[in-house]
Design brief:
Blueprint: E1 3-9, H1 12-24, E2 30-35, H2 41-54, E3 60-64, H3 70-79, E4 87-90, H4 94-103, H5 110-123, E5 162-169, H6 175-185, E6 189-193, H7 195-198, H8 201-209, E7 216-220, H9 222-229, E8 238-243, H10 246-254, E9 261-266, E10 274-275, E11 281-282, H11 284-295, E12 299-302, H12 313-317
Modified residues (Phosphohistidine): 9, 174
Organism: Alkalibacterium putridalgicola
GO molecular function, one term: kinase activity
């Protein structure tokens, strides 16, 4: 029987599994894996690997809560080596789950079940009064960017890229960025600025696949971002920049890119780093980069999502031995 992994931010996966089993009955080869607030990408990936190892089938179907979120991204990483058999469906709801449970009685291929549950999942979204139900329409991008290459020196729009948000986030493009921040700043492009990621074809592919509808995603090295910021052909581009660490953000600023404020969202903990709150960990190099950006007149906005209250990073950095 096809193995099913339900994956979500928080305990949603566990709750919807309970709901599905209340309707369809107890299920074999089904596991709920959760990403809790104190956990990171490696934690949910480990849970997924343990779930897969427990199945008695090599056919695996991932049902995840949000396209582009961390559960999706980790499932997508595992999926890359099993594209011939496995499948991922995002936007999990109860109608979709019930269809997947019942579909296993007549289908033994994960991809067949995935194909069969998409329409029932969509049909589960209803509204009353019925007049509020939107007509089916293709997603259109509002971008005014040129849709074909332009000669060097061509001035488009203002002749200057509009950087609407510059964010340091060790997870790069994930659910909080793909949904909350994208809706808040409304970019035409999400640009991941990282030499390391630009050299990693798998990570680049996963990032471009996680881009929200109507927004393009690119991965560029630091030097390329500096070039783009000085290129007048990007005058109609509205950008959300993502940096994996403060060092890359500093290099861009030192290269002449005008960034007045940096949003600090997430910095993963690793050996040698000090936790300054529940999602930010720094070492001496990080702190030195923040100091140098401050010397350039940059201010810092510590927020995971737009609805959070903005906090100053300096009182947090004083918890370390690197700030007087």
């Amino acid at each position: 029987m096809v193995g099913i992994i339900l994956a979500s931010h928080g305990e949603f996966a566990e709750g919807i599994l309970q709901s599905g089993q209340m309707i369809v009955g107890e299920q074999e080869n089904v596991k709920a894996v959760t990403l809790m607030p104190s956990e990171g990408p490696d934690d949910i990936r480990r849970k997924m690997e343990e779930a897969i190892a427990s199945f008695d089938s090599d056919e695996v179907l991932f049902l995840v809560d949000l396209w582009g979120g961390t559960p999706f991204n980790q499932a997508n990483t595992l999926f890359e080596d099993h594209k011939d058999k496995w499948a991922i469906v995002a936007g999990l709801n109860l109608g979709m789950l019930i269809e997947a449970f019942t579909g296993r009685f007549g289908m033994d291929k994960a991809q067949d079940i995935a194909k069969a549950i998409i329409e029932p999942g969509k049909d589960s979204v209803k509204v009353r009064p019925e007049s509020l139900q939107p007509a089916e329409a293709a997603v259109e991008t509002k971008s005014e960017e040129p849709n074909q290459p332009l000669p060097e020196g061509t001035v488009v729009g203002t002749g200057k890229i509009d950087i609407r948000l510059a964010r340091i986030d060790s997870r790069l493009l994930h659910g909080q960025v793909a949904t909350a921040w994208s809706k808040d700043v409304q970019p035409t492009r999400i640009i991941v600025v990282s030499d390391d990621v630009a050299q990693d074809d798998l990570r680049k592919s996963l990032i471009t696949q996680a881009s929200p509808p109507g927004i393009k995603a690119n991965v560029v090295p630091v030097d390329k971002m500096i070039e783009v910021a000085k290129d007048p052909r990007f005058g109609k581009t509205s950008a959300l920049l993502l940096f994996e660490n403060p060092q890359d953000a500093l290099r861009v600023i030192e290269g002449g890119v005008e960034i007045e404020e940096v949003n600090v969202g997430s910095m993963a903990h690793s050996e040698g780093k000090v936790m300054i709150n529940n999602v930010l960990s720094v070492d001496e190099k990080d702190v030195e980069s923040f100091k140098k950006m401050k010397d350039h007149g940059v201010t810092f906005d510590v927020r995971k999502v737009p609805s959070d209250q903005s906090k100053d990073i300096w009182p947090m950095l004083k918890k370390t031995k690197y700030v007087d």
